[in-house]
Amino acid sequence: MTSHLSRRTVLTTTAATAATLALGTAGASQTHAVPTLPAGTSKDKVLVIGMDGLRHDRIDAANAPHLKAMMSEGTYGTSLLYANPMAATSSGPGWSTVSTGVWPDKHGVKDNTFAGRKYDRYPGFLARLAQVRPELSTYAAVDWKPLDTQGTVTPGADAKLVLDGDADGYTGHDATIAGEAEAIIRDQNPDVLFVYFGQSDIVGHNQGAGSQAYLDQIAVQDAYLGRLRAAIKARPTYASERWTVLVATDHGHLDAGGHGGSSIEERRTFVLATGPGIAAGARPVDTRLVDVVPTVFKQLGITVDPAWGLDGKPVQERSTDPFDALQPSLTGRVDETGVPAGVLGFTHTPPSGWSVINNAMGTGGVTEWRGWAFATDEFWSRTQRDQWRELNVRARGVFAVADSDEWADKNFSGTYDSTLVTPAYDVTGKTRVRLDFTTFYRQEGSQTAQVLVSFNGSAPTVVKSYTSDVVSQPQSLTLDVPAGAAGVHFRFRYTGSNNWYWVIDGVRISHS
Known about the structure:
It is a single chain. The chain is 24% helix and 25% strand. It starts with 14 loop residues before the first helix and ends with a strand. Helix 1 (15-31) runs parallel beside helix 8 (170-187) and helix 8 packs parallel to helix 10 (212-233). The chain has helices spanning 15-31, 65-73, 91-100, 104-107, 125-132, 146-149, 165-168, 170-187, 199-207, 212-233, 264-267, 292-299, 377-380, 404-407, and strands spanning 44-51, 75-80, 138-142, 159-162, 192-197, 242-248, 268-274, 346-347, 355-357, 363-364, 373-376, 398-403, 412-413, 416-421, 425-426, 432-442, 448-455, 461-466, 470-480, 487-496, 501-511. A seven-stranded mixed sheet has the order 2-7-6-1-5-3-4, with helices on both faces. Strands 8-11-12-21-16-19 form a six-stranded antiparallel sheet. A hairpin with a 5-residue loop joins strand 17 (448-455) and strand 18 (461-466). By secondary structure, it is α+β, with helices and mostly antiparallel strands. The protein is globular and about 75 Å long. It folds into two domains: 44-308, 3-Layer(aba) Sandwich (Alkaline Phosphatase, subunit A); 322-511, Galactose-binding domain-like (Jelly Rolls, Sandwich), CATH 2.60.120.
């Protein structure tokens, strides 16, 4: 958080001061009038809970029965954020990503100044709902004020509670938010709510994510979650309603406290969801933080307009990416000393029907990156920080990567020259074939990156060459099918010598 720094303003209070704040807020809350929302119109209802700076890998050690119950009852996907130069791992970009359903290269928020925000083009989901489903009854409660003043979350809400945690302390304001949201859920008929708790980030800054105090704060917010879930079930109309509950965070924290940088701990995020059609006990590898908004829309029965440009997908929808099938066969490090031994994140074995041609590949080098490999963000981005590997945001789960830079970190001879080959696809009687994929390419020196096509086993022909950076973007190529052609396959050939890298993911081939 904070207003103009990469880290949020840290409030250091004594126990006595904290108690006074809590009592003062409790007293104030007794005179604070709970707003009256318009009557809800939907049996499908969604509660989104934001917990600022909550490191998901600390939940297991905390007294958090409600979060753990949701993990058992629903779908729990963990993933990593971007880092600079795309955006800092701070609250402005993080909550913008959660609220808009797009990455910072679209919503424009790179830090807590919110400079460059493009909420007119990519509004928060409550603002979008006000446009497309204005009859819904919506509510937002936040105590980090920029989420209101900058227009990140609250625009479009029929009623909102905005408190100032930086000025007054988050402990008491979080409690007020929990109490008001509980009352609204129990006693009124809201359709969609966004409820935010900020003290987890403050404790992370002051005492570190590795501290007992941080675990204690997770327990406090878990209790708030329990109250809100109980309020849902206490509704007299609950049996005829379909409730979805989502919990997410905006960034992680260092063990010693702090965030904004590019470490794995600062980049940790999660999306936890329960509701109709959301699988119990699922741990998908392909969930990203941008998936909150599409999940909200799906659960409300709203069809996403492609013109909205969302980057996410509903949490219950699995990708059809062939590389994700490799997840169970991923292994640990061989030469990469920066990757912890317990991280299983790479393989050289391609998916069924795919192949890798390395007959022109140099010898030696770092084993993991000798020719096209298949890896996870958790594994690949640890190899070397701050070389943009953190920006691979539109890849999901397992992706294919050719990395001559990392390959060259150990003695080698020759050059990097490796080709990834798709299976053959049937195009009999078709006039066009389309190749869609996501790519992340960083250009340097004389390296080359080419997409080639071959019909009926003919000599491969170059149909696309990359000569400049493409930072995690969708790609689409449509080609005419020659008369009489029955099959097609594509190749991705990368050559280099201690240059950068090329990532391919989400390969789909269709025809017409």
